[in-house]
Amino acid sequence: MNLTRRLQRTLQRNLTLEDALPTRMPVYVDSVAYLFGAGTLMALVELVATGVVLTVFGPDWYHHRPVGRFVNSLHFWGVQVFFASLVLHMATKFFMAAWRDGRWPTWAVGMVAFFVALFAGLTGYLAQTNFDSQWIAVQSKDAINAVGGGSIFNPMNLGQVLTLHVVVLPLVIVGLVGVHLVLIRRDGPVHPLPRSGDAMDGGR
Amino acid sequence: MSVRSEQTLRGVPTKPYDLVLEGIVVLLLVVALVVVLAALFGSPDYPTVRAQDVARDQPVALLRTAAGFLAGTSDLQHYGPPYTATTGDAQRVLGVAPAAWFGATHPIRPAEDLVLAPLQRAAQLDPSLAAPLARFRSATPAEQQSWARAYLKALDHAVVKGSQVSLPAGDYGPVTALMDGMLRLGRSGLLAGALEAGPRQPYVLDTTRALLFFQGAVDHSAAKSLNMLGETWGISHETGPYPGAWWLWPYTFLYQVPPMATSSNGDLLVVLIVLLALVLLPLFAPFVPLVNRVPRWIPLYRWIWRSWYERPEGRKPRRT
Fold first, then answer.
1. What dihedral do alpha carbons B291, B293, B294, B295 form, nearest 10°?
2. Do A12 and B48 touch (CB under 8 A)?
3. Are residues A154 and A182 in the same domain?
4. Whole-angstrom Cα distance, residue A181 to residue A186?
């Protein structure tokens, strides 16, 4: 058994270079609705890039220096663009019933990435070390504690919040987005619904 | 193209496409939009509620907070897990209290951790605190409560003149001296440090006690002035004229309607509804009858694929 040959065959069957980096697309991929996923991905790129700069220069820089405050604002508005694109992406995929023809795993991984992004957003607010983070920490603790989550995650523990926000959650999101993209490119764009709108259930 | 893709796209006309170019164009558009928004509007950075500011501007509020911890009247006293071992105080729905399963994993003794221990540390610099601390600690719990509650009540008639807070005469035992010490500690800017003193100093990564100290009336007063209270959609707001975390609106909406708005178990109810309606339902939407028919009832897809339906291929019925 040659594992390398098996991997080659798996890729040939599922994901060639032309699938991963396509130079042709079905003609029905012809709507602005297809750009929201790309918008979300590029907003994520912007967030990671500005996040790395904020991490390198540190809190005093982004709170008190003009350039630091501007980069902080880039990160802040990047979050707004990210969630706006993401919500539009999810809404359009829902109304396209994009889970059809065995694409539920793509849908599910995207959903999980969204939930992790919500948590990343919360830790971002908590990590700001201003009144927003102070207030959100003491307010959000009650919901987290009510379900027993407070035994693991404490929104008032800045060390935990900060490392989750700048290390763990970005890695998890990037990993999930990577899987999401591989599944998208493997399966290709879902066929348009028949105009009558039949056959949309169960990821079949 | 893979075997899989050839099967998927058999019979479907294709057109030239450049994934990398599309990615670059979208990235440039996103960056341009973000740069314009950041340059025009900046970002919120409202200063924290600090003990020295509260001690200066609202000394009675600081005293009321500290005396509440001593008197056992603060919300923290009967919070339940993870702060106190009183599992009966944990929020419960249908008899189930998930917080109680884990116990007091982050124990907080409000009087000791938030008042007496910080004062004990301050007593190294302020020896006048040593005697009142010793007297308070050696008193019975009933005496401690009696002094602290009398002091708390007397704060309703407090007179503030400059940096002095005067109370009507009463039997407050050593509590007056202790509270004056808390006020001095607050004014000095050392209260947060005294609250977070721990075994790993000089490193302080856990800010729990310093944040919990003002979580009651003081933080609520600041939040109210900024329109950030829970009954006004709370944490989905942001300080200043910014959009806030609008993606949390479905979550914060649940706090606006009964029974969640009024129930002492409101947080647990909200989280359970969120888990069911906003996590599991979307995740498994393709398999949920009715939900998976919504795209047919609201046929947005006809607009998205309108150019396809104008083609001869798009008019043919397709077996999926």
1. 130
2. no
3. yes
4. 8
Chain B residues whose beta carbon lies within 8 Å of the beta carbon of residue A75: 43
Clarify whether residues A104 and A152 are in a common domain. Answer: yes
Residues in CB range of B68: below 8 A, 6 or more apart: B74, B152, B216
A149 and A86 inside one domain? no
Domain boundaries, chain B: 51-220
Give yes or no: residues A129 and A75 share one domain. Answer: no
Q: Which residues of B28-46 are buried (b: 16+ CB within 10 A; e: fewer)?
A: eebbebbeebbeebbbbbb
Expressed as residue numbers, the domain containing A61 is 33-96
B9 with A188: Cβ contact below 8 A: yes
Residue B140 is encoded by which pair of tokens? 């019975």
- Name beta bridge partners: A26: B14
Sequence length of chain A is 204
Does the CB of B244 have a partner CB in chain A at under 8 Å? no
Q: ∠ CA(A187), CA(A33), CA(A177), 5° rounding?
A: 50
Name the B residues in 245-274 with CB < 8 Å from any A CB: 245-248, 265, 267-268, 270-272
- How is residue B248 annotated by DSSP? G
Question: What is the full DSSP assignment across B60-120?
Answer: HHHHHHHHHHHHT-SGGGG--TTTSS-GGGS--BTTB-HHHHH--SS---HHIIIIIHHHH
Per-residue pLDDT of chain B (320 residues; tens, 9 = 90+): 788 888 888 889 999 999 999 999 999 999 999 999 999 999 999 999 999 999 999 999 999 999 999 999 998 988 999 999 988 899 999 999 999 999 999 999 999 999 999 999 999 999 999 999 999 999 999 999 999 999 999 999 999 988 789 999 999 999 999 999 999 999 999 999 999 887 787 888 899 999 999 998 889 888 888 888 877 676 777 888 899 899 999 998 998 888 998 898 999 999 999 999 999 999 999 999 999 999 999 999 999 999 999 998 887 755 54
Q: Rounded CA gap, B269 and B93, in Å?
A: 7
> What is the residue whose two structure tokens read 């035994």?
A151
Whole-angstrom distance, CA of residue A202 vs CA of residue B38: 43
